[in-house]
Specification:
Length: about 300
């Protein structure tokens, strides 16, 4: 029986002075040209050096604590990030001080691919750093096809469609990854299934799945089509409106507020397309309820 919940997130800077140290953490062990680092830093600086992800995780934890209390589940909630404060090692150290012995980990990624595995590797590295007193950490399952995740995304899609008006095309987006990654086929299958389930619940017959936030050298194949190429194709085919639904994210990472809300929107408007972005699931009641249900299933097991 678990005696704690650990919310594991990516982390993000919360001021201009945090941006470069944060990116150094993200890029540790990788040879990235300085000009590319500065380019990415400029995305954060555009928003005052603040990523929305930490504040959104705080809101999710607050909503989750209320949900657990309402269901009489006495499980303290801890929070650890991979790349910025609160760091996983500090959080797991605090859990050890508090006497926690077994934690369930909610990883803020809906899909099974290397990004999620990196979260687990960082959890294990933090446990090793803390030593013998560190709690055992067991991950909750992926949730790409869970009814709560689907319901929250479908509600957000319906709201965006209402805002766009009749005749809008729908593009679901997820983070692109290199096609050479061994789990790329599984990732595509899971993202496609999320899109299919959300579209069905929203009563949508026509939609496309596209990818965003590609990085890496141009010679390396990544999942396509890219959102930019898709927007160009829509305009070429006479489409006037597009709703973009970022089902690959549970909250507004920089990849959402910059890559979609700035870059994709500017491209769409330049092509004469009306652009509406659906909200991420955030603290939607159905999504928070889903996390509680995953916890209950794990505890019963």
């Amino acid at each position: 029986m678990a005696d704690a919940l650990l919310v594991v997130s990516f982390g993000g800077p919360e001021g201009q002075d945090d941006v470069i140290p944060f990116l150094q953490n993200v890029l540790r062990g990788r040879q990235v040209p300085a000009e590319r680092v500065e380019e990415v830093a400029s995305h954060y600086r555009r928003f005052g050096g603040v990523s929305p992800i930490n504040s959104q995780v705080r809101a999710l934890i607050a909503a989750l604590r209320d949900e657990l209390a309402a269901s009489h589940i006495d499980l303290p909630v801890y929070w650890g990030n991979r790349n910025w404060h609160p760091f996983l090692s500090d959080t797991i150290q605090q859990m050890a001080v508090d006497g926690r012995q077994r934690a369930l980990a909610f990883i803020t990624s809906p899909y099974s691919y290397s990004g999620r595995r990196q979260y687990l590797d960082d959890v294990e590295a933090a446990r090793v750093k803390v030593g013998d007193r560190a709690p055992v950490v067991e991950e909750l399952p992926v949730f790409y096809n869970h009814p709560g995740f689907v319901e929250a995304n479908a509600d957000n899609l319906r709201a965006a469609l209402a805002a766009a008006g009749a005749g809008a095309a729908v593009a679901f987006t997820a983070h692109s990854i290199p096609t050479a990654m061994e789990e790329s086929a599984e990732y595509v299958a899971q993202v496609t299934e999320t899109a299919r389930l959300v579209a069905r619940q929203a009563g949508l017959a026509n939609w496309c799945l596209v990818y965003q936030s590609r990085s890496g050298p141009p010679t390396q194949p990544w999942l396509e089509p890219d959102i930019g190429e898709h927007l160009q194709a829509l305009a070429h085919n006479g489409v006037a409106k597009v709703v973009v639904a970022p089902i690959g994210f549970i909250s507004d990472h920089m990849e959402v507020i910059y890559d979609l809300d700035v870059q994709a929107r500017e491209m769409a408007e330049g092509l004469g397309l009306t652009f509406v972005r659906a909200a991420t699931v955030g603290t939607a009641p159905a999504f928070v309820r889903m996390i509680r249900q995953l916890i209950e299933t794990a505890q019963d097991g």
